[in-house]
Design a protein that fits this description.
With about 290 residues, the protein is α/β, with parallel strands linked by helices. It has 9 helices and 12 strands. Bound molecules: adenosine-5'-triphosphate and magnesium ion. Adenosine-5'-triphosphate binds next to strand 2 and helix 1.
């Protein structure tokens, strides 16, 4: 039977008289990828924050990794949270800390994870090498490009080898090539470390990549799992949020078939397959 990693049961969230989530129900099972789409302000970020209990719902229950976290105290959340990695929408790197210190932060500051210094350095280096930034240990965030900082954020989210990774708009504001690199790294993390993944994005291509591309160790790149024109799915669900409600939840093929005028705005239909060298490999159109 599928193991539920994250469950929302009738979750509502209200800020004063603003109902920002309205009875959301959602189950993310082990090995799933969930892609959250939806207009600005539709509730993607609050959903991710609720998943880690960084904010509390006004009503409903949230279960994370088998625990009901709805009413847990901060002290009781530490251990459960240490199994979850998050990349914040704003990046969340500390400007005054080096890249090594930023990525090592969860290992040095989460009680359960606290490890000997030499082990921390090994894990930080590994995590940075995973995102191909092994050479940046001693630099500061301001010395890196926006895309590199995003990769550092991915390294920090995953340095604890979490069971669940949450990524809030990891490709926002990046050029198409860098956005592709970021998504490749997220797919790499998912496939090599078997990380359950929830990702908020404005880019349909990010979801299409998660649903159809797999990490290939031989070529050290993502490759399509099925030919163009077919849907691989790869346990990927798409969620379209509309004003705090789930307007759509299903696979890519169902999403593309949706006739709902709001939902279909989030679909970018793919052009016909390109013919030429490289076959089915190659980058998704930007
Ligand atoms: N701390 C807060 N206090 C009051 N209102 C908040 C707070 N955090 C979020 N909101 C409101 O909740 C709603 C959902 O915000 P959220 O940040 O989840 O949107 P989003 O879907 O992530 O948007 P974007 O695509 O711009 O990132 C918005 O109306 C926002 O103003
Ligand atoms: Mg957001």
């Amino acid at each position: 039977m599928a193991e539920a990693i994250l469950q929302f049961e009738d979750v509502s969230l209200r800020f004063e008289d603003n109902l920002v989530l309205d009875r959301v129900n959602l189950t993310v099972n082990r090995g799933d990828t969930f892609i959250l789409l939806g207009a600005a302000g539709s509730g993607k970020t609050v959903l991710l924050k609720l998943a880690m209990s960084l904010i509390q719902p006004s009503s409903g229950r949230i279960r994370l990794l088998g625990h009901d976290i709805t009413d847990l105290k901060e002290s009781e959340l530490f251990e459960i949270r240490s199994e979850v990695g998050i990349l914040f929408q704003e990046g969340g790197l500390f400007d005054s800390l080096t890249i090594e210190e930023n990525v090592g932060y969860p290992l040095r500051n989460q009680k359960r994870l606290r490890a000997p210094e030499e082990e921390i350095l090994t894990r930080v280096t590994e995590s940075l090498e995973f995102v191909e930034l092994g050479h940046t240990l001693d630099k500061f965030p301001s010395e890196l490009s926006g895309g590199m900082r995003r990769r550092v954020g991915i390294a920090r989210a995953n340095v604890t080898n979490p069971k669940l990774s949450l990524y809030d708009s990891p490709t926002a504001g990046l050029d198409p090539i860098t956005a592709h690199t970021i998504m490749s790294l997220i797919v790499k993390q998912r496939d090599l470390r078997k990380t359950t993944t929830v990702l908020a994005t404005h880019r349909y291509q990010d979801g299409a990549m998660a649903a159809n591309y797999q990490w290939d160790e031989a070529t050290h790149d993502v490759v399509r799992a099925v030919p163009h024109g077919q849907y691989a799915s790869l346990n990927t669900s798409f969620v379209v949020m509309k004003e705090g409600k789930i307007a759509f939840l299903g696979e890519q093929q169902q999403l593309e078939a949706s006739r709902d005028p709001y939902v279909s705005q989030f679909v970018l239909h793919q052009p016909p397959p390109r013919i030429g060298p490289g076959g089915d490999r190659g980058h998704l159109p930007a």
